[in-house]
Amino acid sequence: MSKINRLSEVFDQKGVRNNDIVKLLRVRKETVSRWVHNKQQPDLHKLYLIAEYLRVDIRELLHPSDWSKSKVEPFS
């Protein structure tokens, strides 16, 4: 099964525990555990809140990248 989010990796990088997110979003710890293990996904609003809390681009929660430094070329 491929990963569809990077919550576990980003939490580790930022030193954040699942319980921190439980308190932030007022959700059950089982819910956050399912998100971290890619068994269920948070909705877009919750992803936004997590990204804000972690001070990362929301896209970093989904796919590793260097968004802030990349220059996107327009389609021809």
TrEMBL record:
What the entry lists under CDD domains is as follows: HTH_XRE (cd00093)
Q: What is the lineage of its organism?
A: Bacteria, Pseudomonadati, Bacteroidota, Cytophagia, Cytophagales
Output the Gene Ontology terms for molecular function: DNA binding
InterPro entries per the UniProt record, alphabetical: Cro/C1-type_HTH, Lambda_DNA-bd_dom_sf
Please name the PROSITE patterns in this protein's record: HTH_CROC1
**Name assigned to this protein:** Helix-turn-helix domain protein
Where the record annotates domain HTH cro/C1-type, the positions are 23-61
